[in-house]
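Final report, closing paragraph on structural work. Over the funding period we assembled a curated collection of sequence-structure pairs, and we close with a single example.
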Amino acid sequence: MLTRPLDKRSVLKRSVYLPGLAWRQFRDDPARTPRLAVRLLARAAPGRAGVRLSRSRLAVPRPRSEARECAELRALLAHTPPPGRPARSASGPGVLAFVTNALPATNAGYTVRTHRIAVAQREMGFDTHVVTRLGYPLSQGVGDTRPRVDVDGVPYHRLLPWLPPGDPVRAVEKAADLAEPIVGEVRPAVLHAVSNHLNAAVALELGRRHGLPVVYEVRGFLEDSWLSRDPSRSEDDPFYRLTRELETRRMNEADLVVTLGETMRAEIASRGVPDGKIITVPNGVDGSFLEPLPDGSRLRADLGIAPDAPVVGLTSSFYGYEGIDTLIDAAALLAARGTDVTLLLVGDGPERGALERRAAERGVRAVFTGRVPMDAVRRYHAVLDVFAVPRRDDRVCRMVTPLKPIEAMAGGIPVIASDVNALREMVEPGVTGTLTPPEDPEAWANSLDRLVYSPEVRRKIGRSAREWVSAERTWRAVAVRYREAYAALGGREPGP
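Its predicted structure, as stored:
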């Protein structure tokens, strides 16, 4: 990884921005202050004390006031920008992508997809650059103010103002202002925004200023993720309705909409977005994931897992909709039958503390590793006998196709997944994996029991899954789909 040096101006900007961010959070909702203080203490405290603080309930961020969130959404919906410049021909081979977060500060499925696509595009001759949202990563409490970080040859640009704007419309304009020099450097033929609507708004503003086409890549539905995190919420809530309306407007304003699967495509079309401007570009894997898995015996020993213990696990962000509680309950049922399995749960998130307590209360053998580096994921795959995707039957899970199961399938690991629409697009029962009713520990226990004690079935499914990924789901194949997508913008295609 290459970085530009941190100069005195950047250090000063950090010292100004972070207090400004804290003041804005306090102004928005004073009740959020204690949780912010706990998170800051967790970062500062040494050793186990910091770890305990980071896992406490008080470390989970308190959501912003829904009334304030809705007021900002209404302000964005009410804003009508002036007419833009006429569309112009491509001035260079560049692609400028606008994303919410990115490597190296954030390692998640979202950032991995961004990075792998950018790497594959650059290998094919695209001059792809990535721009993160206004204030990131300072807005996440990461005190890194380098304006640019290069990872595997991919340039990541940061938009770092001196103070966070308090007005959402001004925030979009400020982000576009800060991105202007990057547009001049890259000379992009395409502006490629990735969920959510704020990234799309910045790209659309720059597209208006420069007469450039805008692609909006919809990787999920923000309002449905919000809905899934609290059972008291409903589709009638103002935040849900306003977010859905704003996301739909950005889709219609873009020149082309890209999404991850056919279920998502159908949802976007149902909102009135013309079917002809929607293209599906699924998740993929790097070629290295198709190589034989490394020997997992050393890591098993390091994790305290017996050499012959059946291991079921996942790599995930720990949110409620992932359904990890169902997997823990299924393991408890298996243990009650005399069938012990070890759960290997790789990742982190707001539900981690509750999941650790649940496993302990039910006597389940579970290893929680926390987040691991992207290049270490396959070492953990090598420990697994079965990869689990126990997502709930929530609207967001029915529509959005995850990345992590594809990576496991590439390594020949049999996948057991919840039987929801999005997962049916990648798992063919009995061929490339197993589908099981969601939120049903008994059904999950039965399916796991069959897989754990059928090594030949596991090998057969794993082999078929790997062959499917190799043929259909590499990042290079994904990059080819992007070339086709860009070409659909009236011939103004970046690259050679």
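The chain has two domains: 2-19+72-280, 287-473. Residues 180 and 206 are 8 Å apart (CA to CA). We thank the funder for supporting this effort.
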